[in-house]
Design a protein that fits this description.
- The protein has about 60 residues and is an alpha+beta fold.
- It is about 30% helix and about 15% strand.
- It has a two-stranded antiparallel ribbon.
- The relative contact order is 0.19.
Length: about 60
C-alpha cells in the first residue's frame, strides 16, 4: 500500500520480496482473492489487521 497507494491488486499479481537475504516471489493477488473468499473463517483480529493495511472488504 505504501508503494502504490492502494491495496487492490489483480489476481495474477506477484511481489518479489527479500527474506533473510533470499529472493522470493509472493503470489499476492492469489492470496488476497483466496482470503477474501474465505473471510468468514477469519477472526476479528485478522480482519482488523487486514483493514489496517487498507483491504476494503475487511472493514
Amino acid at each position: 500500500m505504501a508503494r502504490t497507494g492502494s491495496a487492490t491488486v489483480s489476481r495474477g499479481h506477484a511481489e518479489a520480496v527479500d527474506i533473510d537475504g533470499k529472493g522470493h516471489v509472493v503470489k499476492l493477488g492469489t492470496w488476497l482473492s483466496n482470503t477474501k473468499s474465505r473471510r468468514d473463517k477469519l477472526d476479528q483480529t485478522q480482519l482488523d489487521l487486514l483493514a489496517g493495511l487498507g483491504v476494503e472488504w475487511a472493514q
